[in-house]
Amino acid sequence: MAMNPGIHLQAVHFTYPSGFGLAGIDLSIGRGERVAILGPNGSGKTTLLKLMLGLLHPGSGTISFEGEDLGGMSRMARARAIAMVPQELLLPYSLTVREVVLLGRTPYLHRYRGPARVDLEAAQAAMAATDLLSAAGRPYNELSGGERQRVILAMALAQQPRLLLLDEPTRSLDLNHQIRMLSLIRDLNVTRGLTVVSSMHDLNLSSLYFGRLILLSSGRVVADGPPDTVIRPDTIQEVFGVSVLVYRHPALGIPWMTFAPDAGDLFSTREDASEAINP
C-alpha cells in the first residue's frame, strides 16, 4: 500500500451482465498523486473510476480509501471525500453557473434548509479557482463546451474533496481548452495537494501533465509507472494495435509519440498531398 494512503484496490474483480469487466486490479494511489488512466475505448477506464467513487461495488476484492473500507463508508462520507467530474452534465432545467456549482454542496446541506454562509463561500472559492466568477449569473446551458467543463469541475471542487476523479475531462474540447483544463487540474494538485485520478485518451497530453500513467487493456492493468515506462512502442502496439515512434520532447525531455505509418500508408499520403498541391 502507498506510504501516504490515498485509495487502494486489492484483487478487485467486477463484471457487468454482458460479461465485460475488470479482473484482478491491484493499485495503490498515494495521497497527493496525479495519475492518468489510459486505454482503448472499452478497456475499463470509466468502470475503474466508478469503483473508486463507490458508485459500483466489486464482485470480489477490496477497495479502501485513506485506510478505511470504501464500501463501509456512508454515502455522505464518500460524497464529502471523493468527487467525480463526468464527461458532461445534462440538467433537466435551466440553472445559473452559481446554482450548478452549489449542487456540489449537497453532501453538506441540511435537508430542510438552504445553503449556509459556509456553502456560499465554498461555491465562491470554487468559481474563483476555475475563473468563473464573471459567469456566475449566466445560464449553464448557454455556455460553451470548455466553460461547461470548468463549471462541472467547480461543482466538484465545491464538495471540498480529498480525491478528485475525472472522466476524460478534455473530451470534445478544442486544443486551447484542453490545455487550460489540464493546467488547472495540475495547479489544483500542486497547490492544494489534491489527489487526482483522470481517465485520458491523449497519450502525449497525459505524458505532459501526469507523472504516473496506468494503462488498461481488456479490463487489466498492463503498465503502471512514469511516462518513460508506459509510453513505449511495443506496449502501444500491443494495446492499441498501432505502430508508433517515441522520442524525447525537445524542450521537456518527456516521451513524445507520433504515428509510424506503414509504407503503403506513407505512399498514399504523399500521393494525395501531391495531388492537392498540383491539381
Describe this structure in words.
The chain has helices spanning 45-53, 75-81, 97-102, 117-129, 145-158, 175-192, 203-209, 227-230, 233-240, 263-277; strands at 7-15, 21-29, 34-38, 60-65, 68-69, 82-85, 163-167, 195-199, 212-217, 220-225, 244-248, 255-259. With 279 residues, it is α/β, with parallel strands linked by helices. It has a domain at 75-161: P-loop containing nucleotide triphosphate hydrolases (Rossmann fold, 3-Layer(aba) Sandwich), CATH 3.40.50. Helix 4 (117-129) crosses helix 5 (145-158). The longest helix is centred in the middle third of the chain and has 18 residues, at 175-192. The chain is globular and about 60 Å long.
Question: Structural class of the secondary structure composition?
Answer: alpha/beta
Kindly, what is the distance between the CA atoms of the first and last residues, rounded to a whole number of angstroms? Answer: 62 Å
Sheet with most strands: strand arrangement: 6-7-8-3-9-10
Please state the average pLDDT score.
90
Task: Jot down its keywords.
Rossmann fold; four-stranded antiparallel beta sheet; disordered C terminus
What is the compact description of this entry?
The chain has helices at residues 45-53, 75-81, 97-102, 117-129, 145-158, 175-192, 203-209, 227-230, 233-240, 263-277; strands at residues 7-15, 21-29, 34-38, 60-65, 68-69, 82-85, 163-167, 195-199, 212-217, 220-225, 244-248, 255-259.
Draw up the topology in text.
Layout: E1 7-15, E2 21-29, E3 34-38, H1 45-53, E4 60-65, E5 68-69, H2 75-81, E6 82-85, H3 97-102, H4 117-129, H5 145-158, E7 163-167, H6 175-192, E8 195-199, H7 203-209, E9 212-217, E10 220-225, H8 227-230, H9 233-240, E11 244-248, E12 255-259, H10 263-277
Parallel strand pairs: 3-8, 3-9, 6-7, 7-8
Antiparallel strand pairs: 1-2, 1-4, 4-5, 9-10, 11-12
